[in-house]
Amino acid sequence: MLEVRLTHTLGALRLDVAFEAPKGVTVLFGRSGSGKTTIVNAVAGLLRPGTARIAIGERVLCDTAQRLHLPPHRRRLGYIFQEGRLFPHLSVRQNLRYGQWFAPRDARAEDMARVVEMLGIGDLLSRRPGALSGGEKQRVAIGRALLSAPRAILADEPLASLDEARKAEILPYLERLRDEVDIPILYVSHSASEVARLATTVVALDAGRVVAQGRAEEVLGDPAITPLGAREAGAVLAARVIRHHDDGLSELDAGGAALWLPRVDRAEGAELRVRIAAHDVIVARGRPEGLSALNVLPGIVQAVREGAGPGAIVAVDTKAGRVLARITRRAAAELALAPGAEVHVVVKAVSVAQADVGAAG
């Protein structure tokens, strides 16, 4: 368990946060300037916070009350930056061995072969970084961090510099990292899709404060919490692949409700997370007929949160899980939407992007 309590002033930002990051991926989520990178740099020892206590288990990394501030090289943390930052004159194999060189002799070392297989970089070992794509460089950087036997991994928006194709390439490897590595991973992101796919825990930040923390589906499904604004609101559903159909659709089971999506590249029986963006959801008071949309789920309104503008976020509890819908305040009033109202939510199958479907963690 990584424990973080710190306050710090950096320009106009006044940071005051406290949270815990258990095993798995804890995502620091919020707008640019909310303090995400400042927190990660304080944990890494690259920044001296005003006041802080940072610890991993029994090992204290920083305690300003005791005037304790371990330097970065003594914290045993793996740091993955936005760019791979590999040594250009070394091969992939040599870059990985450089990580091993930093592993303490008494630490449980990761097996090189296992890391290479997990990250799918076996064919790259003899190449130099200049011959790698952005996604390949990031996978090697992850491997180097793992092979240093870290107590925790820090990742500062590791996909931010990649195009959509490279992001799609590396996300499955980050899911494997989450599921197979037995240490905390502190991950910075301002992408709702990344959070929905990867996070086991979400720490939502706004202007240097923690506004919510907890399981991804709980935080992302709360209509009062929109760290990136209402346009990026969306909920996460747990689902299982039932079968793939010849017309290019995949049939999923979400809590006993059928969910239809464009074909997902997962085996039948696979457990998934599916992010449903709030702006792709329609709310109806009765069950609509004659629609082209395949996903129509009955539910009960849990909350209606009106914004300062013309919009509102409606949270609906369905058999599949909580779904958020972004509609106009006028529509909410005309439908008399309030907690307890019986409604149906409608989701077009083709509106769910492949980037919003990932392996369950």
From TrEMBL:
Residue ranges of domain Mop in the record: 290-356
Alphabetical UniProt keywords: ATP-binding, Cell inner membrane, Cell membrane, Hydrolase, Membrane, Molybdenum, Nucleotide-binding, Translocase, Transport
E.C. designation(s): 3.6.3.19
Top enzyme class: hydrolase
Domain ABC transporter, chain residue ranges per copy: 4-232
Taxonomic superkingdom: Bacteria
GO CC aspect terms: membrane
Classification via Pfam families: ABC_tran, TOBE
GO molecular function: ABC-type transporter activity; ATP binding; ATP hydrolysis activity; molybdate ion transmembrane transporter activity
Protein name per Swiss-Prot or TrEMBL: Maltose/maltodextrin import ATP-binding protein MalK
